[in-house]
Structure formats: C-alpha cells, structure tokens
What does this fold into?
Amino acid sequence: MSFFDGVNARTLEDAPDGFKSFAIGENEAYIDDATESLAKGSGRPMMTVTFKRDDGAEIKHYIADNDWKLQNMKQLYSAFGIPFSSTDVADWRHRRGIVVCKEDVYEGKTYPKVSYLKPLPGGGRQRQPGCSAGSGKPSQGTNRDSQPWRNERPDDEFKDDVPF
It folds into this structure.
C-alpha cells in the first residue's frame, strides 16, 4: 500500500478546494463553539469563540478578561441574540449574527481578524446552518420587539446624554 494510492489527475481535480476564509467586511456566521481557557502570555482567563460560515470558513474571536471584557461580551450577546442571563455556552451554538472582519498583518502576511459583531439585518431572525435565508425559526428568548439582540429589560436601552 502506497500513500499515493487513489491520487491521480481526476481525483485531484474532483477534490474540494480546501481552505476557506472569512472575507474582509461583513460575514453572516453562526457560533460553532465557545471555550474558556487561559491566555498564553498573561495566564488570565479568556474565552475563544469560533464562528463558522455556511461554506465551512472558520474564524476565532478572543475575549480577554480585561477592561473591555463586559463590553465585548455584551456585543457578542447582542449580536447573536443570546439572553444576557445565559452562561451555558452550549445554548449559544448555531446562533447567527454578523462577524465584521478587518485586515490585519502578522509577520508580513495579511489575514482577516474579527473587528466587531452585529446582529442580522431585518429583525435578527435566526436560522440553522445550511438553511436558506428566512427559512429558519426565530431563536428562543426573543423579546417584546422580536429582536433577540435586545436585552429583555427595557431599562437597558442605550441612553445618550451628550448634548450635541
């Protein structure tokens, strides 16, 4: 038996293209996984959220335990319709939202990096991966406005007190 058994021009042509990447800009995606771990450098707790697109592209988003933790977590919860009381990451899986990526450079190579998260347009309807747009069911825990990205408490709305 050889490593090259089954490898020929036809099988290589028919093989899938392989690696897919998130695009710079907006990407409709769903939460595939979320895990808690320790940051390599500081040893502080962090969360790694893995987002996937329907075509199989995958990107990781890291939320560190620092001054921006609550802001970043609120953005994740709001964008993906996660109830603010939910800490069970298993319930987050397959929730959909928009992952906005910017271009980043590391060691001379350009790659997409999660910049921020936002809810789906049109009321934030959730659908399962692989379903056509609009065919999925609304996520559980939607609120009074049928917008899962809003907190269920009316007093948690953004209030702008800047005078201009």
Remarks:
- Confidence is low (pLDDT under 50) at residues 131-156.
- The helical segments are 9-14, 69-79.
- The longest helix spans residues 69-79.
- Residues 19-146 form a domain with the OB fold (Dihydrolipoamide Acetyltransferase, E2P) fold (CATH 2.40.50).
